[in-house]
């Protein structure tokens, strides 16, 4: 499974890439910190999943999400943000996001959902230890 990580904070991006690459069968094919760079990276690499922060420099994750969907990007977009879920999850859903995760509380859930997505159709072994079962992912309230 190919993933693009879009996060403007380099230390956070490095942590995300490290966590994601612990998953067997997953590779980070591009990284970006700004809006235009993110859209170009996604369209050039056609990943299965985009991990997208909302606050980018320069630009906005909401704009990236809208642009990707307008350009017919059919992969999954998982938003990972510290913004207020009650406000931003519905906005992200309206623009075509497949999931919304709080950076402070939902990283393990995100990793579990990526694992499940990667394992659809064929079981795979985890390299870094599997989390326990999780309830289905729901957007919004």
TrEMBL record:
Keywords: Phosphoprotein. Residues 2-118 form the Response regulatory domain. Pfam families: Response_reg. Signal peptide: none annotated. InterPro entries: CheY-like_superfamily, EvgA-like, NreC/VraR/RcsB-like_REC, Sig_transdc_resp-reg_receiver. It comes from the Bacteria. The modification 4-aspartylphosphate is found at residue 53. This is Response regulator. It comes from Roseateles amylovorans.
């Amino acid at each position: 499974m190919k993933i693009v990580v879009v996060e403007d904070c380099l230390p956070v991006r490095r942590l995300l890439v490290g966590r994601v690459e612990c998953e067997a069968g997953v590779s980070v094919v591009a990284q970006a910190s700004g809006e235009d760079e993110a859209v170009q990276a996604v369209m050039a690499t056609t990943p299965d999943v985009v991990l997208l922060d909302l606050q980018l420099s320069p630009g906005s994750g909401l704009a990236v999400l809208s642009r990707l969907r307008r350009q017919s990007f059919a992969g999954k977009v998982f938003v990972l943000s510290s913004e207020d879920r009650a406000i931003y999850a519905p906005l992200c859903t309206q623009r075509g996001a497949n999931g919304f995760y709080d950076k402070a509380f939902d990283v393990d859930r995100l990793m579990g959902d990526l694992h499940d997505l990667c394992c659809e159709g064929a079981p795979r072994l985890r390299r870094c230890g599997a989390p326990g079962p999780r309830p289905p992912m729901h957007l919004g309230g």
